[in-house]
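Pasting as-is:
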Amino acid sequence: MIAELHAKTALVPAPTLQPSPTTMNQLPSASPGSEAAQHLALEVAKYLQSPHPDPSRLTHLLATYGVQLPLASPQMPRSTSTLLDSLPPLPAPGRSASVTSLARKPSSSGGAPPLRALSSCTSSSSSPTLRRATTAPATSSESTHSLLARVADLESQLSAQALDLERVRVQARDARAAADVKSAELDRVERRTKDAQDAAGYWERKANETCEELAEVRAEAVRLQEEREHMKRNVRELEDELVALRSSREQVVAPGLEDELVRLTSEMEEKLKMIEELDASRKRTDHLSQKYVDKMVKLERELQAAEKQVDRLKSEKLEMDSEKNRLKHEYEIKIQQVSAQVRVASDGEPWMPDSCENCLHMCV
């Protein structure tokens, strides 16, 4: 800000305070080297060093010592207030100490008059120190503007990079969430597959046991069928004998033959009932076996569908992992680019893109 103010005030021509010849002749006390001139120089120096200078005070001070300004000059303002406004501002402490030293010391070299020393301090054409103070801040102002423009450009680039990084971070977070959802679904399907495999094993064991029982029942039914045929043959033989005995009209019937025939008939009926019961049991067993077989087929189909879904979810999870790794790789590349740009902005070193060899494992 001080440099800009100096650059602005350097364009305004600095007026020179010149005492009026008539006044100097009328007031001999204001002659060079006199006490009045030294006192005037000290008062003017105090006025210039005051934080809030009052123009009326300087006008009264100049009128008291009989100093008149050349109002007829075209470069001078027509009032004391505008003259004071056109004067260059007092330099900051420590910036140009030679100007304040001139105001404090009335005659530092060769016994120069105080007013002439004051005019030489305020003139931009006769003081090399003031010339440096008014020309050097111009270049520093240009460099400051260029640095500010560069900083604004870098800030805009950093803002754009930050937006890109935030977008990549959001994409990576979404991909990670989707991968977590897929992993949870994959775990759930794997648990269902394991339960289906356990159920399939259980029903397979039950089906094997039922098949074994069915084989035993079938063997028993075959054996009973053979006994039934044998009993039928015996009954037919006995009936033939009975018919032959009745046809021969023999009066004497073998004792116990009728009882034996009744006993065999009752046994044959019992065997027939047993065979019917075994046949019904066989039918029930066949029905259960068919039911177990149908359930086994259904479980096998569900198991195959679950395995296909597991394979599909595994492939989707691999794709999500690769997408997550790619986004992570892009995020690291963005971070490297932003770090490199910040390093270039701070150090001024040329930026070269880093190699991607360290991140190849992320692209798999």
